[in-house]
Specification:
The chain has helices at about 25-30, 105-115, 120-145, 145-160, 170-180, 180-195, 210-215, 235-245, and strands at about 15, 20, 30-35, 50, 55-65, 65-75, 90-100, 100-105, 165, 200, 205. The protein is α+β, with helices and mostly antiparallel strands and about 250 residues long.
Length: about 250
């Protein structure tokens, strides 16, 4: 459910040495609004670009009958920007994992703004193309992983974005996010418990060894990944965070 805010204000970003006005956040603030989204809500990526404030979303790439969980998005990330620059990109879906607030900007007004502002367009294009490359890399790596490693990777990245060692998620929700059978997730969680990486209870997972969990979820051929959509090399994270601060309910 979306609850649009009624007020907007200019965006200021706290920085060392005082308050620094952020150009990108200021530019987007007039066409942005704050919404509150519940867990399970699907983001309207064809119509909006989202900046998480305190909510967290999962991002899934769909191609034909396959589903690849390619990241999490939390505060400082941007969701849905790729659609403005890569029209033929496989379908991306984003669903709220942890309920909270998001700043959303309409695709059409954003496209109109970019048409008259080449600097803004170039700035956003760099992020969008890097994010696209990240999604494809993550999908390719996921294909090479066993289910146990996919589950480990999901939990580790979720923990990093949520910022807590306790993750509220059911076996059904986890199987849905990964596009696999619930029974397979149950077996995978038992394996991770046997490795003393997690402790799994009904509706909750406790991360015991985050470093070991992330290592378990890698193929062994990559450098240590950054959590979620952050590894896309983002619009500097401060920019998105400033925008999130700058639109009040």
């Amino acid at each position: 459910m979306m609850v649009p805010s009624q007020r907007r204000r200019s965006v200021n970003c706290e920085a060392r040495g005082g308050v620094q006005r952020d150009e990108l956040a200021e530019r987007l603030a007039p066409i942005a609004r704050r919404v509150s989204l519940r867990a399970g809500a699907e983001l309207q990526l064809g119509d909006m670009v989202y900046f998480p404030v305190d909510g967290v979303a999962t991002i899934v790439l769909e191609r034909e009958d396959a589903r690849f969980q390619v990241g999490f998005a939390g505060r400082g990330d941007v969701i849905g920007l790729h659609g403005l620059f890569t029209a033929t990109f496989p379908t991306l879906r984003a669903e709220v994992f942890r309920q909270g607030s998001f700043i959303c900007v309409g695709i059409k007004p954003l496209a109109q703004m970019m048409a008259s502002d080449e600097k803004l367009k170039e700035r956003l294009a760099v992020y969008a193309l890097k994010a696209t490359a990240h999604f494809l890399d993550e999908a390719a790596e996921t294909v090479a992983l066993t289910l146990e490693r996919r589950v480990a990777r999901w939990i580790a990245r979720c923990q990093a974005v949520v910022g807590s060692g306790f993750i509220s998620v059911t076996h059904h929700e986890l199987s849905r996010a990964l596009g696999v059978r619930r029974s397979g997730v149950t077996v995978a969680l038992h394996v991770l418990e046997g490795e003393r990486l997690i402790r799994s209870k009904r509706g909750r997972i406790e991360v015991l060894d985050p470093v070991g969990l992330m290592a378990f979820g890698q193929t062994g051929a990559e450098s240590p990944p950054h959590p979620g959509a952050r590894s896309a090399g983002a619009t500097p994270r401060a920019e998105a965070a400033c925008l999130a601060q700058g639109v009040s309910p």
